[in-house]
Design a protein that fits this description.
mainly alpha, 81% helix, 15 helices, 271 residues
């Protein structure tokens, strides 16, 4: 498939008729996803809301530090001050990182009944997904250091910068490909490769989705400066992952659409 043609075709999703249908499907996906999540994992949401209301700063710090990838494991105890705080922060961070993974499992098309047995069947893949996420975080930091430091940016730095621009869609695509693979090492590596290809052949679409989300993020951060409302919005968003879940539903529908339209890119056609 010609990459320039693929780029042009990827933007067809913004045609008025296509965009309306895509938006309706995305909103339905969000509703279906939260329906499953609130049925089985309401207690996780309740836990985060409770911790956030009790100590919003501790919840925020646990999320941010765990989101920093491998830095959490190398400096976690020193950042928290005590071993007990570090363990509590680690537990919150792991559970918080599990929420998007559980949401992906909730919105993933599957003939299997979505219950605790279904979720536990795939939970072992969470560690692999986190390792990929942590590598992306390090790749982004390294690439930005090369650019900011005025060091000659070669091919490797460009690739790292390219990877780091889209951590959420890459993680989403990797997870979906991984769930549809044979779960073996080679299948895991191929899932990562296929996710790169999906980003590469839909690069303009990915950028536009990210840019369209920027005003929403800006408006949300404006509310954080409002007394009382800001704290409530922060706790609610951190606890329910509203913004992240919305993005996950968008990227999941893009994954399904592009997997259907560009299947020959990701899987060999039967001869």
């Amino acid at each position: 498939m010609n990459i320039l043609r693929a780029w042009k075709d990827s933007l067809s999703i913004f045609a008025p008729r296509n965009f309306k249908l895509f938006a309706l499907v995305t909103f339905k996906t969000i509703g279906d996803g939260y329906k499953v999540m609130l049925h089985y994992w309401w207690w996780l949401y309740a836990l985060f809301i409770g911790v956030g209301l009790y100590d919003e700063h501790f919840l925020h710090d646990a999320i941010v530090r765990f989101s920093n990838g491998f830095d959490f494991f190398t400096h976690g105890i020193y950042l928290y001050g005590t071993v007990l705080q570090a363990v509590a922060g680690a537990a919150l961070g792991i559970l918080y990182f599990a929420l998007p993974f559980l949401m992906i499992l909730s919105i993933r098309p599957s003939v299997q009944q979505k219950n605790y047995k279904y979720f536990l069947r795939y939970l072992s893949l969470l560690g692999y997904v986190y390792i990929i996420y942590a590598v992306f975080v390090l790749a982004l930091k390294y690439a930005e250091a090369l650019v900011v430091g005025d060091i000659s940016v070669g091919l490797i730095a460009c690739i790292l910068f390219f990877i780091g621009r889209f951590p959420l869609p890459l993680i989403t695509f990797v997870t979906f490909f991984l769930l549809d693979s044979d779960k073996k090492i080679f299948g895991m590596v191929k899932s990562l490769y296929r996710a790169f290809i999906m980003i590469l052949f839909n690069y303009p679409l990915c950028w536009l989705i990210v840019l369209l989300g920027a005003p929403v993020n800006y408006l949300f951060h404006l509310t954080l400066d409002v007394p009382y409302l800001g704290v409530g919005m922060m706790v609610l968003n951190q606890s329910l992952l509203i913004g992240t879940s919305l993005y996950l539903c968008v990227w999941s529908n893009i994954y399904i659409k592009k997997l259907h339209e560009q299947s020959s890119l990701y899987f060999k056609e039967p001869s």
